[in-house]
Amino acid sequence: MTTWVIAGYCLIYLIALSAAYFQRKTFPFSESIMVVAIIGVGFTVLVYFVSPVVETSILPAVTMPELLFTLTYLAFVSAMLVFVNPVPPAWENDFFKKKLVKLIYKLSLFVLIPLAVLRLVWHVEWSELGFSVQQLPRQLLAALVLSACFGGFNFIVGSGAKPIRAGAFSTQQLSLWFPLVFLWNVVEVGLVEEFFFRAFLQTRLTLALGSPLAGICAASLLFGLAHAPGLYLRSGDKDGPLGAHPTLLNSILYAVVVLSPAGWFTGLLFAHTQSLLAPILVHAAIDTVAHVSEFIRSLGSDKRIQAQETAL
């Protein structure tokens, strides 16, 4: 089973890569290959060397009901992401209210519900869910190194950091908003996504398949595909990798070819540390670089800043 899962992921990836090549007139193929080489390969190798390997006790095998719940709940979450918009229409243009509603919604859907079921029904230990801090200094050092490397890469090439590179914000604004947005992202993207895809999904798949590598491959593919609806339904991001109005095919291809390899290094980081701490900190740092401009523009900008950004 382990071999089949790894081979299946490789086959799906090669098919998606080939399709992306034939779609290169509308798909950013060259840029995607560069990102995969740096993030998927380079940062995964870096994780291998800088992250501490925590020795774990033998975990109990996942039961069939638990595995069925995991897969069924994954399908349920996927449907909710596609068909349900938790934001009331009256709040669509209110940035803070919109973000707050989505935070509560995602925290409930991705963390609180599966956490409660695993704890109450199957009595899964907190440590088995990534809530541990063994080798804390080395975990923090690994998080710092990876955040600096990945965050720096995102700053140099990421479309979300374009206003920062162009000097649209003052040092005072960035000094204020970077830590605030980082703390927000620790919960909204760090805890939410890393708990769901690493502690909940990857751990159960690893136990079911009997192989950390197979678990990382399967969870990485699902991690990438989970972002496809957002890529397709998102509009107006003319500076994004897929443009303002991506096709469904390009959204799926980008999710598999580019985003699933991002799951390689976070999946390995979780597998090594057996903790959510470092993955949460790294993920939050990466998204902070990408989204701090959006927060400043919506909550902390003045007309001069808005005029500068409009001109970019």
Task: Tell me briefly what this model is.
With 312 residues, this protein is mostly helical.
Secondary structure class reads mainly alpha
What low-confidence regions span 5 or more consecutive residues with pLDDT below 50? 302-309
How much is the average pLDDT?
90
Question: Tell me, what's the shape?
Answer: globular
Number of strands: 0
Count of discrete structural domains = 1
Helix content: over 70%
Largest sheet: none
Number of helices: 12
> Terminal Cα separation, in Å?
51 Å
Write the H/E string, N to C: HHHHHHHHHHHH
Gyration radius (Cα, Å) is: 19 Å
Report strand %: under 5%
Ordered list of secondary-structure elements with their pairings:
Layout: H1 2-22, H2 29-50, H3 64-83, H4 95-121, H5 136-157, H6 162-165, H7 171-209, H8 212-226, H9 228-233, H10 248-273, H11 277-300, H12 303-310
Helix pairs in contact: 1-8, 1-10, 2-5, 2-10, 3-4, 3-7, 4-7, 5-11, 7-8, 7-11, 8-10, 10-11
Care to describe what's here?
This protein has 312 residues and is mainly alpha-helical. The chain is built from twelve helices and no strands. The chain has helices at residues 2-22, 29-50, 64-83, 95-121, 136-157, 162-165, 171-209, 212-226, 228-233, 248-273, 277-300, 303-310. The longest helix is centred in the middle third of the chain and has 39 residues, at 171-209. 38% of the residues are buried. Residues 302-309 have low confidence and may be disordered.
From the structure above, extract its key features:
single chain, 312 residues, mainly alpha, 12 helices, 75% helix
